[in-house]
Amino acid sequence: MTTEPRTSTASRDTAGAGWVRPLCWTAVALEGFDLVVIGVVMPVLLRDPAWDLDPAGASVVVTVGLLGVMVGALAVGPVADVIGRRRTMIATVTAFSVLTLACAFAPNPEVLGVLRFLAGLGLGGVLPVALALVAEYAPSGRGSSATTIMMTGYHVGAVLTALLGILLIGSFGWPAMFVAGTIPALVLVPLIVLRLPESAEYLARKNGERDSSWRGERRNPVATLFRDGLARPTIAFWVASFMGLLLVYGLNTWLPEIMRSAGYALGAALALLLVLNVGAVLGLLLAGTVANRIGVRPATIAWFAAATLFLALLSIKLPGIGVYVSVLLAGVFVFSAQVLVYAYVSQLYPAEGRGTALGTASGVGRLGAIVGPILGGALLQAGIANPWGFYVFAIVAALGAVAVAAVGRAPARA
């Protein structure tokens, strides 16, 4: 059986361990900001004669930003596994914060698109590194809940960005949103420099505390994903992550419009989007606890299966509060299913390849983040989003469950 090599207790920064979760939570909240900020400013830009921007051009800007995030996520894992996760976190947070600030001064859609792509390169690297550090420093037996609690920052950041849009755009214009998104980094980056500990496993490796057999292989962390029986789990995780992020981005983009096509008023449709994200936070808090008790594999399969059921049920127009309860339950399972995939990846792979495994799963999943809005838009354009949009998303969730089941029961790692 393959196990992780020993890590000296001297290499673990016990004083800094308490800072890992709050600093990583804050960094992930800034990614939640990025999820919503372009949607908040785009209605203003579409109506600005100086920009001459139409919906097709706006879609290009959004898609280019997501491509940058995908490339950043794919690239960051091997880099972090080689140079260390602390330095990678400092670099990625600094880079995307500076480039987000630059977006406030973009003179046209072309420059904004370039800046969004470059900012996405840094932004895509934050989540895999944060997940790897939180998984490593989580208390024994609580890795799943540590991961899901950290991911609540993603949705908190999204909600706060929407509120900032209400407060800032009318008085200060759309550039104020990008400036506001940079301000937290003025505090976060110095705190990361001063307080975030390095990965204990990385320090042990650097100090020569690893056995010599692995030391000869460490220059290719990608190889870790395909040896020792991990090739099938790696592919299965990529598929599951693709399906999970397709659901997250597809529903966040198009749920209000799909509900309107189902006959709900605009106010109710927007309220349902808020309810969906409230369910996401509740689901994240619940999913980690359940995974700690029954195991992350059965919990992830169950979460995707429940998402399948509740997404299909949304095709039924329920009276009164029934639709809100149904959307809330869909949010509980849809969003946290994807986070449980990350938790499963964190537990299955050896420490030397964990950052790479998380980075590739996140990067491939970003393809789903691009496909989700395109798929929802195509269904709306065809006039079949209700009810077939819900059925299609339910099928996607079912495929996620099948992919997780295909991971199998790989050998446990110390």
Structure description:
The chain is mostly helical. The chain folds into 2 domains: 13-215, Growth Hormone, Chain: A (Up-down Bundle), CATH 1.20.1250.20; 223-406, MFS general substrate transporter like domains (Growth Hormone, Chain: A), CATH 1.20.1250.20. It is 80% helix and 0% strand. It is built from 14 helices and no strands. It has helices at 14-46, 55-83, 85-103, 109-137, 143-172, 175-195, 200-206, 212-215, 231-261, 266-294, 296-313, 322-348, 351-381, 385-406. Helix 1 packs antiparallel against helix 4 and helix 10 (266-294) runs antiparallel to helix 11. The protein is globular and about 60 Å long. Residues 1-12 and 212-217 have low confidence and may be disordered.
Extended strand count: 0
- Uncertain stretches of 5 or more adjacent residues: 1-12, 212-217
User: If helices are DSSP runs of H or I spanning 4 or more residues, what is the number of helices?
Assistant: 14
Q: Roughly how many Å apart are the termini?
A: 10 Å
The tally of domains stands at 2
Beta fraction of the residues? under 5%
CATH topology of the largest domain: Growth Hormone, Chain: A
Secondary-structure element pattern, one letter each: HHHHHHHHHHHHHH
For the report, how would you describe the main beta sheet? Answer: none
Query: Structural class of the secondary elements?
Result: mainly alpha
Give the CATH superfamily of the largest domain.
MFS general substrate transporter like domains
Mean pLDDT: 82
CATH class of the largest domain reads Mainly Alpha
CATH architecture of the largest domain: Up-down Bundle
CA radius of gyration: 21 Å
